[in-house]
Amino acid sequence: MPVTILIVEDELAIADSIAYALRTDGFVAQHVSLGAQALQAMRATDPATLPALVVLDVGLPDMNGFEVCRQLRQFCNAPVIFLTARSDEIDRIVGLEIGADDYVTKPFSPRELVARIRVVLRRLAPPAAPGAPTPGARFELRDAEARILYRGQALDLTRYEYLLLKTLCERPSHVLSRAQLMDRVWADAPDTLDRTVDAHVKSLRAKLRQVDASDDPIQTHRGMGYSLAGA
Ligand code: CA
Fold it and tell me: Name one Pfam family in it (predicted).
């Protein structure tokens, strides 16, 4: 099934060059010029046409790309690669306050962008090697019981620890920023701080260590966030 990439860019020449490079590489390119249209496109309910990744220009006529990303993150996990022309924007993206997966600086080579897109999509793909150890082998999610088993042993978790570990388990090998974790785990507590996330990761790690002291499946990505080891 061809993979659709959504291009959100108001400069048509740039959008065309990205679309061309994507199509050359076997992707389906969908293009919109406004942030509101991007959000609309990502609300598509047909999984066959839902874009797998969003290439998002920061400077859009109706709303900036950061705001688009923030609203997108409230209902959608699709990876976002920002297009930016300014270094102060890069600082915000690199801080990953807004849940971006990567960025490219204008001017850029469309082929380089397509290569980045492939890297991000590959990173998100479920581990392919059969028989390889996966988080599924370590963790067992029992949603109905709101319980998670680690190496066959039920964990005694607080509500937020449970939601945090469940969120990480659902996206193995995917780096989730503190902001993304706050959006998903602490959705009912909007004034949560970064250090709340860190404190819960710490207590969660301690509980996992009690089961298996030789393993630390939660990986810290300095300045970016956390992931659950995929293999
Ligand atoms: Ca622009």
Answer: Response_reg
